[in-house]
Amino acid sequence: MTHYGVFRFRDSYRKPVYSDCRVCTHPDTSRTPSPEVSPVSPKEQYTFKAQVYDRLTHLGLRNLPAGFPFHNTLHHGAPVVSESSYEFNEEFEICGEPRIAKFAYSRPAGGRNHSKSDDYYTWRIYLPTHRALKHRRGQGHSAKYAAAQVQVPYCLMSHHKYGRILRRDPSIILQALAASLDLGQLITIAISDAKTLQSISHSNLASGYYHGDIVYIGTGNNGLQHVLYNATRNCS
Questions:
Q1: CB count, 10 Å around CB of 221?
Q2: How confident is the model at residue 13 (pLDDT cuts 50, 70, 90)?
Q3: Which domain of life is it from (predicted)?
Q4: If 0-12 CB within 10 Å is exposed, 13-18 middle and 19+ buried, where does residue 141 land?
Q5: Residue 4 domain flag
Q6: CA distance 180 to 58
Q7: Which domain holds residue 72?
Q8: How many domains does the chain have?
């Protein structure tokens, strides 16, 4: 029976650096909450990231939905886990002002019954930007960008025993989001195969990773990939 190590970002790195690199440069301006009307300063954003990171690593999100990483819905009066997309807001106090971080989950594009093996379940955290954007009517407002992003392929989540572990333990995705927030990188939890090993072949961490291992892959804005963690080889 295979046992898997538990990824704990704080144990893997000495301290968070809260990289200013953006995981996604496409702003999300939909339904901007009122506490985000004005842009945050670089200092405020650093404090914001530090507070989000702390809640993630201590499992302290106040509005985390039951059933995370998915969410519970009622079916004939009984709670059932739904894989449909959802989002929720988490409020923080930054320099005496309320600020909103938006957490968003999206299911594979094809839906549960029609997903391809390369479709992804995706979790993102959106934070306000440094600068305000101009509305069409000339009014300034704050945009949001994806400060953290974690994705899991459909084939792993739905057909692999590690997918069952991800479904049962909400801390795994939360810890991965903390790592993504800190590093400013997209994190993919994947099954290593020939394609995966080839993409990380130039990393000094690539040796010792074998076909079928569960690996956490970080992808920077420059497209370079490296292995952050191997859940198969680091079992306790």
A1: 14
A2: very low
A3: Eukaryota
A4: middle
A5: no
A6: 16
A7: 9-230
A8: 1
